[in-house]
Structure formats: structure tokens, C-alpha cells
Amino acid sequence: MRHPYPDPAHPAGTSRRTVLAMACASLAAVPLITPSPAAAATERAAGLDDPARKDIAMRLVSSAENSSLDWKAQYEYIEDIGDGRGYTAGIIGFCSGTGDMLDLVEHYTDRGPGTVLARYLPALREVDGSDSHEGLDPGFPGDWRRAAGDPEFRRAQDHERDRVYFGPAVRRAKADGLRTLGQFAYYDAIVMHGDGGDSASFGSIRARALGRARPPARGGDEVAYLHAFLDARVWAMKQEEAHSDTGRVDTAQRVFLREGNLDLDPPLDWHVYGDAYHIG
């Protein structure tokens, strides 16, 4: 909202020109406020939630999760990749064993009761926390793909991605004074590791990084802090066999960091798991 600027106090009969001169003199006497380095860094960090940068983030994640830059083709994706989390599916790898797939299907059902996936809710509640398919096979994968043809289901996936992963990651990165690359590093980490309380979760990765370097919001060097964060991320990945290939960090995010591309500006060239990718 635009607020009216108050008229300067002046004696009756003072000319408009004199009033303006008095106002200018008053303003000139106000000292200029220079933003702190941390505040300036936070201001620069506004980036990943820009629609074009968000699309880049989704393509980067898809290159690692689906070996494709076409992230919009992943709404219908579903398979058990053998990582102990049951079925992995959708644009962000919602898992039947970690609760986020259950939350998604509940949200989708709330938007349109009687959906093709509603009948799997009891089974999803039962298998939460395990790699079991009990109550889901044989029909769940096919019905997931059928549901992906429904625009409401695609919107539900977008909603849960933003609520659980994208929004929290970007907010925390901005609070730490990180620019677009740092925001993406947080997002990719929370997508893979979740935000639970175990030693390999996003929060633990960040805490380990903070033990080695200060982020810009605390007066630290952004590049040094991001190297510390990525080091902690690699450690967390190596704690689990299914995620022990650290290519999405070593030959992607670390490449952008070494190039000094803290704003994640295209063109971008990287490799993941031996495959080359380019965003012009």
C-alpha cells in the first residue's frame, strides 16, 4: 500500500516553494542507511522461486531422479527402486514408505472424493514406514499412472512439492543469506533426505555445515559455506547404499559452485551418473 507523505509543519502563509525547500532540507539531513552484508546477501538470494529459476530447479532434480530434463513427464512415474522406501513416484519422488505419498493421496482425495487412488488410502497408511507393497499390488502403479492424466492430481503433486520441500528449503536458504545456487542445494538435499531428525536428514546436514562455516547471514563467506554444506551432503549420501553415488553433487552442484555461478544463471552444463545435460 502506498502511504501519503505527511506535509511538513510550517507557519501559515508559507509559500509552496518554501515548504518544498524545507522538506528537501529535512530529507537531506537524514543519514543514508547502508544494508548490512547479510541483508544484502539475502536480497540477492531472491531467485529460485522465480518461475524460470524454479523450472531450472525442477529440470536439475529430474536429471538426477529420472535421467531426463522433462520433469513434467514425471507426474505418472512410479517404481520401486529398491531403496527401502517402497514405491517412489511423481515429480519429486513421493514414497509409500515415508509418508509424503500418503499425504499427497489424502490431499488429492480431499480435492475430489472418489478419485481412482482413494481406495488405496488404508493400504498407504498401513505400509507407511516400511517398504511393503501390501494392499497396493497389483493395481496401484497402473492407477497412479491413470490418475496422472487428471489435472487435479498434477496440481496436487505441485502443491505437496511446494508445501513439503520447495517452500521450506527456499525460506531457510534465504534466511541463511544464500543466493539461487544455495537455495537449490537446500532444495535438492531436502528432496532426497527429508527434514526428519536422523543424522542424514536435511536439518542434520545443515547443522554439520554450520559447525564448519558461517553462512552469509552470519557474516560468513557464501562459497566457503556452500562447500561445507555440500561436503556434509556427500557424507549423508554415503550413509545409505541407495544414495551412495554422489554425482548429483560432485558433477553438478559443485561444478556450478566452482564456476562461481551463485545465481544459477544459464547456460548450465553438468553430468549426473555419467549422462551429460545442458540448459541454454
TrEMBL record:
It catalyses: Endohydrolysis of beta-(1->4)-linkages between D-glucosamine residues in a partly acetylated chitosan. Residues 1-40 form the signal peptide. It is found in: Secreted. It comes from the Bacteria. It is an enzyme of class 3 (hydrolase). CDD domains: chitosanase_GH46. Its main location: secreted. Aids in the defense against invading fungal pathogens by degrading their cell wall chitosan. This is Chitosanase. It comes from Streptomyces thinghirensis.
